[in-house]
DNA sequence: TTAATTTGTATCGTTCACGATGCAAATATA
DNA sequence: TATATTTGCATCGTGAACGATACAAATTAA
């Protein structure tokens, strides 16, 4: 049996599994506020900088606009954001936080540390996390560059 | 602005992005054989050990059976696997490779190294990959244990 | 200025993920 | 043996992801 085909030798399977399991950790913390994990990511982006075009939100999350558009529409239906046509460029759709969307930040104050603590283990500690971040960032940059 | 809410301080976002980008690397390599990445993972599992119940395949991939069942049905429709009722236990559905499913392994021989090479970068080299594997495996085990 | 191209979003179709639920076969308990 | 519980798989509904496509607004070129 070819070693390269072994599941235990697959980087992508590890990333895929770790990503899903951490997302599952977020689920009970976010669902009580009617949020999904991708919606939470949109909030993180808008909390950093409010009133951005769809394209900027998508780029920040490394997602396509055809993923982000329906996601934002659901958030608009929930009253978390507003979507208004751009004034300078009528093609743009500017996404802004509502008061409800802004206030959610305080209510979610416990989320980052709760998930952070759930991930701490033998080889992933506050001291070693930068090493992991560095590797993942390098992989992400490499693949973003490869995809132009 | 709370540091904990910054996107750049989120482990999960990195994992999520890295996972999606690597999966995108697989896409052109797999789609020419009509495969998706999760379907490729099922093949990896069955190439290691043929004829397994749905439950074992799902557990190996850390997925729920309600995710794996429709996935397997699509693979059955493509003639890659067969699904037969278990003889010992009539509740079980045994998934086995067809000749077509077995032969695909040779045709996909170039895939693992192609993706592996695409990921090599400054901080992720054949020497440092074990460190990354260790960290991801620890996180996965920690979260699997937390979810019982 | 008119025509060609690019850009920003949106729509559509397919395939995951996954919580909730249903059901039959197997096992445990009374 | 009858009943209760557990187990293995499937169905359903919702929300991502994403390739393909469409379309209008903006930009560039002729």
List the helices and strands and how they pair.
The structure is a homodimer of 148-residue chains.
Chain A: H1 11-31, H2 37-48, E1 52-53, H3 54-60, H4 65-77, E2 81-85, E3 93-97, H5 99-107, H6 111-119, H7 129-146
Antiparallel strand pairs in A: 1-3, 2-3
Helix pairs in contact in A: 1-6, 3-4
Chain B binds a DNA duplex (30 and 30 nucleotides) through helix 1, helix 2 and helix 4.
What does this structure look like?
2 copies of one chain form a homodimer. The mean pLDDT of chain A is 96. The longest helix of chain A is centred in the first third of the chain and has 21 residues, at 11-31. Helices cover 60% and strands 8% of the residues of chain A. Chain A is built from 7 helices and 3 strands. By secondary structure, chain A is mostly helical. A 3-stranded antiparallel β-sheet of chain A has the order 1-3-2. Chain A has a single domain (10-147), classed as Arc Repressor Mutant, subunit A (Orthogonal Bundle). Chain A has helices spanning 11-31, 37-48, 54-60, 65-77, 99-107, 111-119, 129-146, and strands at residues 52-53, 81-85, 93-97. At the A-B interface, helix 1, helix 2, helix 6 and helix 7 of A face helix 1, helix 2, helix 6 and helix 7 of B. Chain B binds a DNA duplex (30 and 30 nucleotides) through residues 20, 23-24, 27, 31, 36-39, 53-55, 63-71, 74, 86, 89-93.
């Amino acid at each position: 049996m070819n070693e390269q085909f072994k599941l235990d030798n697959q980087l992508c399977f590890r990333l895929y599994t770790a990503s899903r399991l951490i997302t599952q950790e977020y689920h009970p913390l976010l669902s009580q506020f009617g949020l999904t994990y991708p919606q939470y990511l949109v909030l993180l982006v808008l909390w950093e900088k409010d009133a951005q075009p769809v394209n900027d939100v998508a780029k920040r999350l490394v997602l396509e606009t055809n993923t982000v558009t329906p996601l934002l529409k659901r958030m608009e239906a929930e009253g978390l954001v507003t979507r208004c046509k751009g004034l300078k460029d009528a093609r743009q759709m500017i996404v802004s936080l509502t008061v409800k969307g802004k206030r959610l930040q305080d209510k979610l104050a416990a989320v980052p540390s709760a998930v952070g603590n759930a991930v701490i283990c033998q080889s992933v500690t506050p001291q070693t996390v930068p090493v992991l971040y560095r590797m993942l960032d390098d992989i992400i940059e490499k693949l973003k560059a490869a995809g132009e």
